[in-house]
Amino acid sequence: MNQSHHDAAAAKQALLARRKSLFWRIHFWAALIASPFTLAAALTGILYIFTPQIEAQLYGALEHVAPSGVMRPLDDSVAAARAAAPAGWALHSVVPAYAAGDTVKATFSPPAKAAEPAAEHAGHNHGMAAPVPAPKRAFGAPSQAITVYVNPYTAEAVGSLVNQERFGSWAKKLHSSLLQGDGWRWMIELAASWLMVMLITGIALWWPRGTQKALPQAGAKGRIAWKQWHAFIGVVLSVMSAIILSTGLTWSKYAGGQIRMATDSLGQAAPKVPRDVQSIAADGAAPLSWQAVWDATRRQAPDGKLQLVAPGGPQGVWSASSADRSQPEKRFDLLLDAYSGQALYYSGWDKQTAFGKATAIGIPFHRGEFGWWNQALLLVFGVGVLFSLVSGWVMFFKRRQPGSLGLPRLLPGAWKSGSLTAWATAAVLLGAMPLLALSALAVVAVEIVLHRRSMAVGSQ
């Protein structure tokens, strides 16, 4: 009986050793692929964290004014914004002043057939713009849009700015695509995909078993110390890592499409604002003014900064939504009749799905929009990621023998040692992240070549 137990224990230890060598190998490949892009993402992400402070210095004179008396009707500010906008540009949306020192922000979209020439004059505030019909209701500022900032107390334009030229827009593009355009977003998505693999395999390698310790040991030096702190920091930041990676992947191009398809099939899609709602013009009824719509919205929606979009025609409806992502619980969509101000559709926080609520909280957290504590956590996370990258490569070069590739040793039978849970997790990750699946095929091809080469060398 004792011999049987001893043999079983030895077999289990051998299985765990093969499995550990497999995890080490996959962990290495994940680090090799993800490291360059992750380094760029971490550095640009740390820069992006401080967007509120940087933009406050750059655009404070546009976004804030000294309160003086009573605010004039919103229609006066909208008229001033129209006069200051480039001729022919269409008013897209308006964010009324919420706090006493806020300006009114009116966003304009360029003419469809002359977007490029008009954009050249976007930074100027001169020229009278003839009123143009309001565009059809749309969500999100269009490409090349400009925002005109108006003092709500004097109804005077204080300046304008091309939205894409804001520091926040530049920093976001730098972080998401390294300023290479949407066609290059795959770089960061590829890094995030392999970082998820690196996180999972890293936790599996760290998990205490037998004499293996969970915490760094005092007195450890050299590669052992680097290894202990590398694992410990990675695990400490694992929850943050999972949140940042998951939220980043939700708006990525390929993995994001897979996630949206899955949420739709599971009934977790966000409520869709209807497109076929119309206003009813009673005999002699006049369309509501901007001020009247603003007042009606404040009566029917949560208190907070909001955005208004005018009707697209006589039967169109007013659209109102939250303009403050730092208060996700006040997120709403409201459609108003253009003549009576009656709510034709309303969807608030209580109508959001569980996935919708998770992303409404997770995405602003990813961007550091919840205030200084959020920024501090992201800064710690970014520095931790940089330490993980540096310490991982320090260990690699300390382990690597001269003249060798430095790949972690793969024990015989390692690829067959994975548990059912491990292979199921791999299947989910590969299915959810197409770029991971494609690049994994390349890794498998390299592994096959290396295996055949080692077999050929061994047979000589």
Automatic annotation (TrEMBL):
Superkingdom of origin organism: Bacteria
Keywords on record: Membrane, Transmembrane, Transmembrane helix
Pfam families: PepSY_TM (PF03929)
InterPro entries recorded: PepSY-ass_TM (IPR005625)
Membrane-spanning intervals of the chain: 26-50, 186-208, 228-251, 376-396, 420-450
Annotated protein name in UniProt: PepSY-associated TM helix domain-containing protein
Species this chain originates from: Paraherbaspirillum soli
